[in-house]
UniProtKB/TrEMBL annotation:
Record-given protein name: ATP-binding cassette domain-containing protein
Keyword Acetylation: no
Localization in the cell: Cell membrane
Record's GO cellular component terms: plasma membrane
Keyword S-adenosyl-L-methionine: no
Native organism: Cellulomonas rhizosphaerae
GO BP term (any one): doxorubicin transport
SMART domains assigned: AAA
Region Disordered, residue ranges: 284-305
Length: 305
């Protein structure tokens, strides 16, 4: 079997008397998209920062592309690219100038430093805006430029820490499309997000983290199936009735026929299936709602600075 491109065993990290990671285990296969979900303060950002060599773990081992993040941080940084929650681009430079600057900092050869930015500007639909200052870009355009910069060096692993925070639905969909293009080109993606639709759309596999540990992992479909079966939801004058179904047209037709024979007066009906929101609520005991960084996350950022 091929070794995982990311392997985490027994990862621990504390800030004073607050334990953020408590023996976290995680593996990501080469070419996979893994979505890391969890409530605020669960340890997602801390995990990302350790994987990216921005933080040292207190205990445990972490390897990325075969290199230990503590013993070989330079090798790890050469293999990955990190896109955080806010676009890290220079507003005074044009989009083209930003990418050319990053190409030089990434030590690309002279020819590739010229051709690679042009290719990425086209891929991310930024060619027409390439010579405009970034301060004139919309939020979605800045995020696409930031992601383009992350892909300049063709990283083996792309780490996306809540990449669509603050974007409107259309810009979010656009960004999903270009992330999909990167994956098809062979890049492995580790994604943290609080938008569960995003995880459902992009991820091959989902890992749910809470209190510093992975408490469940699997495909979105397998996690949903653990929550419960699909059901037909009937709204009547006296309340809501739920009838389990396999979701097929034939079974739904059978259920509605039985409702008609019973003479039940139904105001509306719908087929409901478990969602990742249901999975999240069941596993963590709280809804998945984007919010402000938890106290431990804020403390972590202060420590990094």
């Amino acid at each position: 079997m091929t070794a995982p491109i990311i392997a985490v065993q027994g990862l621990r990290k504390s800030y004073g008397d607050v334990t953020v990671l408590d023996g976290l285990d995680l593996e990501v296969a080469r070419g996979e998209v893994l979505a890391l979900l969890g409530p605020n303060g669960a340890g997602k950002t801390t995990t990302v920062r350790i994987l990216s060599t921005l933080l040292r773990p207190d205990a445990g081992t972490v390897t990325v592309a075969g290199y230990d993040v503590v013993r070989s941080p330079g090798r790890v940084r050469a293999a990955i690219s990190l896109t955080g929650q806010f676009a890290a681009v220079d507003e005074l430079l044009t989009g083209e100038e930003n990418l050319r600057l990053m190409a030089r900092l990434s030590h690309l050869g002279r020819t590739e430093a010229r051709t690679r930015p042009a290719a990425l500007l086209e891929l991310f639909d930024l060619t027409d805006a390439a010579r405009r200052p970034v301060k004139t870009y919309s939020g979605g355009m800045r995020r696409r430029l930031d992601l383009a910069a992350s892909l300049l060096s063709r990283p083996q692993v792309l780490v996306l820490d809540e990449p669509t925070t603050g974007l409107d639905p259309r810009s979010r969909n656009d960004l999903w499309a270009v992330i999909g293009d990167a994956v098809r080109a062979g890049t492995t993606v580790l994604l943290t997000t609080q938008y569960l639709e995003e995880a459902d759309q992009l991820a091959d596999r989902v890992a749910v983290i809470d209190h510093g540990r992975v408490i469940a992992s699997g495909t979105a479909a397998s996690l949903k199936s653990q929550v419960g079966a699909a059901h037909v939801e009937l709204t009547t004058a006296t309340g809501i009735e739920r009838i389990e179904t396999d979701g097929s047209v034939g079974d739904v037709h059978r259920i509605l026929g039985d409702v008609e024979r019973r003479g039940l007066l139904v105001d509306s009906w719908a087929v409901r299936t478990p969602t990742l929101d249901d999975v999240f609520l069941t596993l963590t005991g709280q809804p998945a709602e984007p919010g402000q960084p938890a106290t431990t996350e804020a403390r972590e950022l202060q420590e990094i600075r």
